[in-house]
Amino acid sequence: MVVNRVRFLDSMGFDQPVEAFSILFPKDWRTEGGVQWGNVQGCRGEMVRNYVKATSPDGAWQFEMPRMRSFSWTSDGMLLQSMQAGAQAGGCAVSRPFTAEQYVEGFARQELKAQAANVRLDEARTARMRPFDEQANNMARQYGNQSRQESATAVGDLAFSDGSEGILLATVVNVVLNKPDFMGGATTQITTTIATPFVMRCPSGRREECARMFNMIMTSDRVNPIWREAKDRFFSRLGQMEHAANMERIRLMGEQSRAYARAQNEASNQRMRDWESRQASQDQQHKRFVQAIREVETWKDPGGGSVELTSGYSHAWSRGDGSYVLSNSPSFDPNSAFRDQDWKQMQREQ
User: Fold this and answer.
1) CA 20 to 30 Å from 135, out of 144, 181, 204, 279?
2) pLDDT digits (tens, 9 = 90+) for 50-69
3) How far apart are the first and last CA of the chain?
4) Final residue belonging to a domain, choices 250, 274, 293
5) pLDDT tops 70 at residue 206
6) Residues 42, 14: contact at Cβ < 8 Å?
7) Are residues 258 and 301 in the same domain?
8) Domain check: are 121 and 234 in the same one?
9) Which domain holds residue 90?
10) pLDDT tens sequence across 74-88
11) Do 157 and 27 share a structural domain?
């Protein structure tokens, strides 16, 4: 078999088309594919998607790498409704988390209209994903994000309704994030991404040859390190920008909370002062009412303090020893009348 290395380009992410990855295919096969970039505001897990489709001249042999998918889920009911609304606006689809084996069985039935048998975990490929999981977890800790990533690869044998056979292999990545909620509990958010689905379709009765072809194509996949580095650098910068934006948002929220607390405190103090003023006015009215019943008035003693004296008089004097003189005559002066200079005039308390 003569094979050629087919190079697939990224024509959207850079100023000019750049080779993103390459795969070996039989020389006479028709191929199409490349890299597609999504919107930054859209589903982040589907932002950069590789797509490949290759077909033999007679169409009996087919290899396809479908575009990756990403799903979101949360244990919070209100947040789940928000996710569903976001999905309708172009965000990630909403789905409960699933395993790689579940994806292989479901994708075969729903998308390929085929039956998947002998679905099993690919231990070797799953083990090769462990360093990538650890790298992602370390980066999450670097940004203060307590998330946990786990990846697994599963493979299954396909049987199509026309008698053809095939192989489906997929790597599923689950990222679990536990966050405290407003009730003192915890909310779980899960992102499930199908990182690398691969489908091989072959003529009936040639499963062993199909497996060899599938393995040859799979193992020949090479990613351009320069493209991968540029892509990773872009996402790293994007993560840093979003982290800085989150910190700024938290700072602004803190300032807003402090300003709200100050306003609430000032309003509370003002309400207290208003209540105290009303209470003092009511106390004064009650005091005057009681004094009117008792027929007394309050006068300020020049020596300090105050004293209640019989009401109905316009002038009062005190000698400082507990003696008082009351009069309605504006010309009366006890210092002259009693030849005693110790009398001090008092003022009625308002």
Assistant:
1) 181
2) 899 999 999 999 999 988 88
3) 115
4) 293
5) yes
6) no
7) no
8) no
9) 3-223
10) 988 888 888 888 888
11) yes
